[in-house]
Specification:
- By secondary structure, the protein is α+β, with helices and mostly antiparallel strands.
- The chain has helices at about 15-20, 45-50, and strands at about 5, 25, 30-35, 55.
- Helix content is about 15%, strand content about 15%.
- A two-stranded antiparallel sheet has the order 1-4. It has a two-stranded antiparallel ribbon with strand order 2-3.
- The longest helix is centred in the first third of the chain and has 5 residues, at about 15-20.
- The chain starts with a strand and ends in a 9-residue tail after the last strand.
- About 15% of the residues are buried.
- Bound molecules: iron/sulfur cluster (SF4) (2 copies).
C-alpha cells in the first residue's frame, strides 16, 4: 500500500526521512514524499511527524 504524506501540511522538518529504514522518503520541491515502491508500511515515519501528516490511506480513520 504505502504511507502518504499530506503535502500541504508538511513543514519539511526532515524527521521522517532519517527515520525510514527503507530510505523511501525524499525531499521534494513542495514537501517530503514517499516512494510507494520502497515503503514497507512500517509506520515509523508517521510516529515521528510533528504535523501528523503522514497517513495510512487504507485505514478508515486516516483517509485523505
Ligand atoms: S512507513 Fe516505514 S517504510 Fe514507509 S515511508 Fe514510513 S518509515 Fe519508510
Ligand atoms: S516529519 Fe512530517 S512535517 Fe517533517 S518532513 Fe516528514 S512529513 Fe514533513
Amino acid at each position: 500500500m504505502a504511507y502518504r504524506i499530506i503535502c500541504e501540511e508538511c513543514i519539511k522538518c526532515g524527521s521522517c526521512e532519517s527515520e525510514c529504514p527503507s530510505e523511501a522518503i525524499k525531499e521534494a520541491e513542495e514537501c517530503y514524499i514517499i516512494d510507494p515502491e520502497l515503503c514497507t508500511d512500517c509506520g515509523c515515519c508517521a510516529e515521528v511527524c510533528p504535523q501528523e501528516c503522514i497517513k495510512a490511506p487504507w485505514k478508515k480513520e486516516q483517509q485523505l
